[in-house]
Amino acid sequence: MELVDTLDLGSSAARCESSSLSARTFKKLLKFEKLFLIFNNGQIEVSIFVVENFCIMNVEEFIPTKKFELIEKANISCKAPSNIALIKYWGKKNVQIPSNPSISFTLNNCKTTTTITFQKKTFKGFSFKFFLDGILKDSFNLKIEIFFNRIICYCPYLEFYDMEINTNNTFPHSSGIASSASGFSALAMCIVQFELLLYENISANYINRKASFLARLGSGSACRSIDGGLVVWGQHKDIKQSSDLLGIKFPYDVHPVFNDYQDTILLVDKNEKQVSSSIGHNLMHNHPFASQRFNQANKHLSQLIPVIKSGDLFKFIKIVESEALTLHAMMMCSDPYFILMKPNTISIINEIWDFRDSTQIPVCFTLDAGANVHVLYPKSNASEVNKFIDNNLAKYCQDGQFINDHVGNGAGRI
Ligand code: PMV
Question: What is the 3-state secondary structure (H, E, C) of the chain?
């Protein structure tokens, strides 16, 4: 096979008739990806690649080529957890391609459960209703429509169904915990489980890869909520299987201490944050420290690989806390600048540092794009740390609220 050239988008739609894709699907693809023509034994094949960082990633794996049998009706329920990044993703390119690799713990208790009722219909086009906690929520429609438009070329069967989407979260909607990671991964898992009913011989490995691939197109970090344990998203030189297109389970040895690592989420501010993650990601374009930050994230991930194996918690803490503070430093020096931490966020950080200094217990913090604090610690230290949280940290939480969580197993059908 020979990679020839980028297509002239105007003239390519006609040529695609000769490929295995329908002209309609092909036109849709044009909107989302860069396209290349490939000559194979003199025959033109259309291939879809995303070209970033001088590396070419093939997305064909996720485009069904076989014919599918439409079924009349199906009900699919899936659950998917939230995740907490240790190396942060902050900054992206089109479409949902991270500017640097990231790694996270998949959580267990903070999760979304979604049921989709698929009902065959006679006309083509998207048709869905979205319910949150049993209540019709039109306000989510735009986000879901963008998601469906991004995934239609990978899930062409969706256009033949009315979809009623019912979803609920274990954590309160107004808790300051983003539900987009668990929400989009649960939705993506439902779609892939439905695909399983239409096509035979789909492997378990493909299900998770495709669910992660689709989830990313809803919310970047959602692709790290399909597999359990430690999940890497974004190409990294030391992790050969890593991809910008989907999350993969950390492929090397993991010290047992990380299998049941604890995460207590301190709800410092339960309101919706003033600056969304999407805006924050965009501000990394033309950010004065963008390239240094992306280099640092790559370096931190290289340093974390042996630490995950050895279980050296003080090295782990140094990387994880630096990542959290750098994420917020990026916000503070973007244009326009902004601050998502609150005074209580800083008080908690100082309390954790004092506690760690005086007890040598390896407890540390990390932050999402918000004011809430994730307190990370080994299970063997849970009783001391829980007492410390009750006595010293709960007072900084809104209504004294926090959520105890730990590393979990990922998404799946229920
Ligand atoms: O997936 P998004 O667009 O909500 O961005 C997530 C960004 C952070 O939570 C701050 C970092 C991360 O890697 O999860």
Answer: CEEEEECCHHHHHHHHHHCCCCHHHHHHHHHHCEEEEEEECCEEEEEEEEEECCEEEECHHHCCCCCCCCCCEEEEEEEEEEEEEEECCCCEECCCEECCCEEEEEEEEEEEEEEEEEEECCCCCCEEEEEECCEECHHHHHHHHHHHHHHCCCCHHHHHEEEEEEEEECCCCCCCCCCHHHHHHHHHHHHHHHHHHHCCCCCHHHHHHHHHHHHHHHCHHHHHHCECCEEEECCECCECCCCCCCEEECCCCCCHHHCCCEEEEECCCCCCCCCCHHHHHHCCCCCCCHHHHHHHHHHHHHHHHHHHHHCCHHHHHHHHHHHHHHHHHHHHCCCCCCCCCCHHHHHHHHHHHHHHHHHCCCCEEEECCCCCEEEEECHHHHHHHHHHHHHHHHHHCHHHCEEEEEECCECEEC
